[in-house]
Design a protein that fits this description.
- The protein has about 180 residues and is of the alpha+beta class.
- It has a single domain, classed as FAS1 domain.
- It has 8 helices and 9 strands.
- It has a 7-stranded mixed sheet. Strands 1-2 form a two-stranded antiparallel ribbon.
- Helix 3 crosses helix 7.
- The longest helix is centred in the N-terminal third of the chain and has 22 residues.
Length: about 180
């Protein structure tokens, strides 16, 4: 009898949770819905397009940070973006002895604050076509528009395009990018 009540409670909780999630406005990234009620890490682990990023975040020990209150704006490179790096670069960064470098590269993709596309567009407009955001690593990303697309330029002059914008999270917002940006 107790088992039946527990099972009913658990099943009811699952149904309620599924109903709540079904009512949320989601964006699909990497074949999975991204729920605004979940944090950056809880959503990212479900995207098949971000397995390299998730592995890197784990290797750098940044999971707890990105599950924190934030808010954060994350420019999230896809697996294809990581594949553009020189052969062996990702494997090298994931080595324990390179944790500090990996952390610097990853935190260069994170900005403190919630900058959705409207906020970024306002910054770009106020800056006469360009804006700069300071990253958590201490570097800077330059933002500009190319037609209707948002372009991110890193400190080395490399450019990334935002391919999916405004993926809202409980602790920030994610913009999917097609190239890994690198600090000086």
């Amino acid at each position: 009898m107790k088992f039946a009540k527990l099972f009913t409670f658990i099943l009811g909780t699952v149904i309620i949770s599924a109903t709540v999630n079904a009512q949320e406005k989601t964006v699909e990234v990497g074949g999975a819905p991204m729920y605004p009620s979940k944090n950056i890490v809880e959503n990212a682990v479900n995207s098949k397009d971000h397995t390299t990023l998730v592995a890197a975040v784990k290797a750098a020990g940044l999971v707890e940070t990105l599950q924190g209150a934030g808010p954060f704006t994350v420019f999230a490179p896809t697996n294809e973006a990581f594949d553009k790096l020189p052969k062996g670069a990702v494997d090298n960064l994931l080595k324990p002895e390179n944790k500090a470098t990996l952390t610097k590269v990853l935190t260069y993709h994170v900005v403190a604050g919630r900058y959705d596309s409207k906020a970024i567009a306002a910054l770009i407009k106020a800056g006469n076509g360009k804006a700069t955001l300071k990253t958590v690593s201490g570097g800077e990303l330059m933002l500009s528009m190319k037609g209707s697309g948002l372009v991110i330029t890193d400190e080395k002059g490399n450019m990334a395009m935002v391919t999916i914008k405004d993926v809202y999270q409980s602790n920030g917002v994610i913009h999917v990018i097609d190239t890994v940006v690198m600090p000086k």
